[in-house]
Predict the structure.
Amino acid sequence: MKAIVCNEFGPVEGLVYQDIETPVPSQAEVVITVRACGVNFPDGLLVQGLYQMQPDFPFVPGNEVAGVVSKTGEGVTHLQPGQRVIALTQLGGYAEQVCVPATHVMPLPDGIPMQEGAALVTAHATAHHALKQRARLQPGETLVVTGAAGGTGLAAVQIGKQMGARVIAVCSTDEKLALAKAHGADLLINYQKRDLKEAIKEETAGKGADVIYECVGGDTFHACSRSMAWQGRLLVVGFASGEIPKLPVNLALVKGYAVVGVFWGAFTQHDPQGFSANMQELLSWYKDGKVKVVVDEALPLADAARALSKVMDRQVKGKMVLVPDISEG
């Protein structure tokens, strides 16, 4: 079968589209024929050796897929061959088939397209976990979302509205802000046209933000760290700008807010039951039209490097998806 293989850390252009062995399920595992796999910012960090996890070589990146169960291992009773599913794969998603622990595979309801299902697993689940378990966002609170037109930022806008927050979207262009507004943002800040710290102060009548979903880093984080309300929660989600900022901790002391890390991958390992419950709630919201995946572009699996470059360059509105050519292999 075909897959995207990383043989050494380096630029995404070094990834190789090649044949590898078809997986065989062990006990409590299933093999999924992949119909779509989501492309995420951490995938690009991973293949460059810049992520928290550094797998042994060679490895296949990709941590979220949608597809059809092709084989089940011993002991798997809740999934059947031919069933539509989505899965958290950790690794191996950029391939025509992937072997996954059955605990990380969920039925995909009819009516949710494969490409949208694949792109739902990581970005929406990260935003959901961040706002529900980490921020404990309450109805009526003010939520600021940076990078609000990207995959996880747009998800945070949608989920924040579903949880009853007043959502302020922060983006670099009016076009991106229009997308955030179309998905529920109440107020918009173009940080290329307005000073971000002053804009947040103005839009919150001087109070500051109760919760900030911060996935950009760099100067954006510095502005946010000075824009928190009393007892606010500053969520550290990622660093899409490429700069990991340093926090003057006296700000948290004087302004009385919490800085809260969000590592969804670790959450899925430490609290698999919480992860499963979150996914069921997300799928329910999706079926009810309360959240939606926006697929910016779907590219052939062989074009993984191009898809990752677009994500890493912050040129994506919503999510990128890779689609294997199931006529091969």
User: Anything to note?
Assistant: The chain has two domains: 2-121+294-323, 124-265. The chain has a mean pLDDT of 95. DSSP finds eleven helices and 15 strands in the chain. The domain at 2-121+294-323 is CATH 3.90.180.10 (Quinone Oxidoreductase; Chain A, domain 1).
